[in-house]
Each structure stands twice: as C-alpha cells, then as structure tokens.
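Human: I would love a firmer grasp of how sequence relates to backbone shape in proteins. Could you go through the record with me and say what the backbone is doing? Here is the record:
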Amino acid sequence: MASNEKIRNVGPKSAAWLRQIGIRSEADLRRVGSVEAYRRVKLAGFKPTLNLLYSMAGAEDDCHWTQLAEERKAALVLAADQIDQEMTARKGAKRLGLNASATQAMVDKALGFHEPVDTEAPAAGSGEDDA
C-alpha cells in the first residue's frame, strides 16, 4: 500500500492524528499495532474514542470494524481502559511534579505492576514477534 493511500476504516480526522504520530499506511499501523497506535494518539494529546481503536483493529485484521469478533472488541476495551489508567497516573504524577522515574513508578503502581517495567523491551503489539 502506498503511503498516501487511505487506511481502511479510518476517516480524515483520525488519519491526520495518525500522521502526527508517524503512521501513514496500513503497513505502519500493522508494524506498531492498533493498541499502541491508540496509546500514542492519546499521548499526543488527541481525544480518540473506542471507535478509532476498533477502526484501526479492523484495518489491522483486514475487515470492517463492525466485523470484529466480540472477544477482540472486549480485549480492545480492556486495553483502552489500561491506557486511560496510565494517562490518569501520568497526569497525577505531572501535577505532583515528579521526575520521570517517579512518574513511571506511579504509572506502574496504578496499573498494578509488581516489578519495574523494562522500558527497553519492545511494546506489546509492536509487530516484532508477529508471524
């Protein structure tokens, strides 16, 4: 797919958001993964809804977003909830004026991590282990 072609299921406003985070094609989206792309859109300060996540997952799965299995949608909702918790923890840490490591510790605690997160490990859905 050429980089100037439309990403399946994604409208112009969402496509602009995705371009802002470096996703310009379905290949880019598949490489990053729909959940990580959604997370990056939120980190960039945009206000995406679950519809964007469903749309990107549909593009990733090569189907219309309404054809996603209920199990897939449920997993996406859980991922979005976790991202929302992360964002809330980041905002709280920023308000408290915490440094980066303290912020990460606060995010980890909010998300229920019991061990420090390996920031050098590939992100889930990064495509590195995909077959």
Notes: The helical segments are 12-20, 26-32, 34-43, 50-61, 70-96, 100-111. The radius of gyration is 15 Å.
